[in-house]
Specification:
With 102 residues, the protein is an alpha+beta fold. The chain is built from three helices and four strands; from the N terminus they run βαβββαα. The chain has a four-stranded mixed β-sheet.
């Protein structure tokens, strides 16, 4: 096994998710199938946003949303306060105040 290369998120509302990851977080699209699939380069791995309907056609069966659909993606930044300011400037509402972690 060579390690993690992608995290694919199945999404029901594609456009707002794409706007968040591409426009607010600033990840660049490297694969784009309009309205159904995009891969975004994070530097270490890719995040794939996949319309649930597309994945259902790939696997040939309906996929129900998980009862617990929460997911955490953690990204390292050199300056957490600067990163928080950048996100605020792009319209992201932070849930908590930024804080350093080691």
């Amino acid at each position: 096994m060579n390690g993690l290369t992608h995290v694919r998120l199945l999404v029901d509302d594609f456009a707002p998710m794409l706007a968040f990851y591409r426009d607010a977080l600033g990840f660049k699209g490297v694969v784009d199938v309009p309205s159904v699939y995009v891969e975004l380069d994070t530097g270490a791995a890719r995040i794939g946003l996949c319309a649930r309907s597309l994945m259902e056609s790939v696997v040939g069966a309906p996929l129900q949303a998980a009862a617990c659909a929460d997911i955490v993606l953690q990204f390292g930044v050199a300056d957490v306060d600067a990163a928080a300011g950048l996100l605020r400037g792009r319209g992201v509402a932070l849930v908590t105040a930024p804080h350093d972690q080691s």
